[in-house]
Amino acid sequence: SVSFPATIPGVAVPDPSAGLTYPFMRVDVLDRVKVYFSSMLGGSGVQDVVATAKCGLQGGLSSVPLLVLNPTELASFSDGGTPLVKILGGPTRSMQVNSKNNLAALVSNNPQIDFTQGGPNFSGSSFGVTGGPGTAPAGFVTNPPASWQASTVPIPDPFRKLAPPPVTTATQVPGAGTFKTVAITQDGCPIGIPYLDCTEYLPGNYPGGITISSQVALFAPGVYYVGGTGLIVASGSLVRPTDASGLPCSLLVLIGCHTPSAAGDGSKGTVFYLTNNGGAWGSGAPTIVITSNSGSLVAASYDTSKSLCPGQAPFDPRLSIPAFVDGNVFLAPCTNSGTYETTPTNVGPNRGMLFFQDRSKAALPQFHGQGALLLNGAMYFHNCPNSMTGPCNDPPTDYQTQLGLWGGSGTGTQLIGQIVVDKLSLQGNSSINMDLSPQPFNGLSVALLQ
Question: Structure pTM?
Answer without folding.
Answer: 0.82
